[in-house]
Amino acid sequence: MDWIFKNDFIVLVLILVLVLESQFDYEDDDEDDDEMQMTTDAKILSALRANPDGVSGAQLAEQLGISRAAVWARIDELRKLDYDIAASPHFGYRLVSSPDALHADDLLARLGKTKVIGRDIQVFERTTSTNDVIEKLARDGVREGVVVFAESQTKGRGRLGRAWLSPPRKGLWFSILLRPELRPQEMTQMTIASATALRRAIEAETGLKLEIKWPNDLLIGGKKVVGILTEMSAELDRVRHIILGIGVDVNQDATEFPPELRKLATSLKIEAGETISRAELATAILRELDFDYARICSGKFSAVADEWESGCATIGKNVTVHIGDRKIRGGAESLDDDGALLIRTEHGHLERIIGGDVTLEK
Questions:
Q1: Does a structural domain hold residue 7?
Q2: Is the pLDDT of residue 108 over 90?
Q3: β-pair partners for 285
Q4: Which residues pair with 360 in a beta bridge?
Q5: Among 2, 82, 86, 200, which is most buried by a count of CB atoms within 10 Å?
Q6: What pTM was estimated for this model as a whole?
Q7: Alpha-carbon distance 243 to 238, whole Å?
Q8: Beta-carbon contacts of residue 230 (< 8 Å; ≥ 6 apart)
Q9: Could you say which DSSP state residue 184 is in?
Q10: Which of 66, 97, 128 finishes a domain?
Q11: Based on the domain organization, do 292 and 176 belong to the same domain?
Q12: What's the structural domain count of the chain?
């Protein structure tokens, strides 16, 4: 009986070891899933950008774990997408120029590793609205961080149901799926964080000076250049998901805006006097959004709010807020802890504004 008991014990120990090993393997797989998944083309573009003087086919093959013939085949496919890649027996492959187009592989290669935003990037040549695409992905249970770009939108929209013009290959029209652990009343924090991130990225890439207009516009010289549309699915006490929709007018000429918008809107190209690389700008924006999203998720909204207020054209000004049929006039004083705008009315009351159409009084 002792022998039987000892053997049963050994069998139980072996089973326990196997279970633990499988559990560790599963956890490792989860960690791998959290890593940004780069395609072969993205890795090639990343290597070419990291080696501007050239990298050999042999080095690429070893780095990617594929044959030199496979490297050549992928290079050939990238050339068909208008990537100018020179080849030399002495210097190997060298990236000469990239097309003025958004490609998921190229954006992933430029972006590198992020915490959440940009772990997956999808690009559509044309869609109704990138927010609609993200909404479907959210319902399908896709993890947060996926970004959807469109070269053009047929039904792009802004706040309050307004149409957003999205001409082909002229701007950045994209949406991001987020699943923050926030209460519904804290959602404005995401719009505030997005505005600060966009302002930092665009100013760094273009040298232009931008101002933030509460809650969702970025202006240059009083003209709108960026719009943010935040949509939410929530329960009573928690957010299920947030869709962050962003439109940036990048390379439009003045004549490409409708006459009624030319005094209200502008583009980065108009203001900078030169064409802006949309791919470079897109990845700079995603990095800054990822940084500020991490700040929000770690409870550092106060730091984000301080930065927002320093670049805001609304704080300290007299404003009129239209909320449906209601009109509120007063002085914009500050943000509260949830990101709502605090307005001191003409009668001395402090109004907490979480949405509406804000007009700066002259």
A1: no
A2: yes
A3: none
A4: 319
A5: 200
A6: 0.84
A7: 15
A8: 187, 188, 190, 191, 194, 216, 242, 243, 244, 245
A9: G
A10: 97
A11: yes
A12: 3
* d(C-alpha 362, C-alpha 349), whole Å: 22
Based on the fold, state whether residues 298 and 322 are members of the same structural domain: no
Instruction: Please answer whether residues 125 and 195 qualify as being in contact, where contact means their C-beta atoms are separated by less than 8 angstroms.
Output: no
Q: What is the pLDDT of residue 160?
A: 53
What range defines the domain where residue 343 resides?
Answer: 318-360
**CATH number of the domain that residue 352 is part of:** 2.30.30.100
DSSP calls for 116-144: STTSEEEEESSBS-HHHHHHHHHHTTPPT
Count of alpha carbons within 13 angstroms of residue 88, beta-carbon side? 9
The domain spanning residue 126 has which CATH number?
A: 3.30.930.10
Q: How many other CB atoms sit within 10 Å of the CB of residue 333?
A: 14
Do 146 and 89 share a structural domain?
no
Across 67-71, 116-120, 153-157, 174-178, least confident range = 153-157
pLDDT in tens, 153-164: 887 766 555 666
CA distance 173 to 247: 5
For residues 114-143, average pLDDT: 95
**What number is the average pLDDT over the span 218-239?**
94
Band (pLDDT 50/70/90 cuts) for residue 104 is: very high
My answer on whether 211 and 256 are in the same domain is yes
| Judgement on whether residues 229 and 347 belong to the same structural domain of the protein | no
Looking at residue 5, its pLDDT comes to 41
Q: Beta strands of the chain (E only): which ranges?
A: 84-88, 92-97, 120-124, 146-150, 171-178, 211-213, 217-220, 223-234, 239-249, 318-323, 326-335, 341-345, 350-353, 357-360
Q: Are residues 139 and 72 in the same domain?
A: no
> In terms of domains, do 174 and 269 share one?
yes
Contact 283, 313 (CB under 8 A): no
Based on its alpha-carbon atoms, the radius of gyration of the chain, rounded to whole angstroms, reads 25
> Would you call the peptide bond into 259 cis, given omega within 30 degrees of 0 as the criterion?
no
Q: Is the pLDDT confidence value at 59 over 70?
A: yes
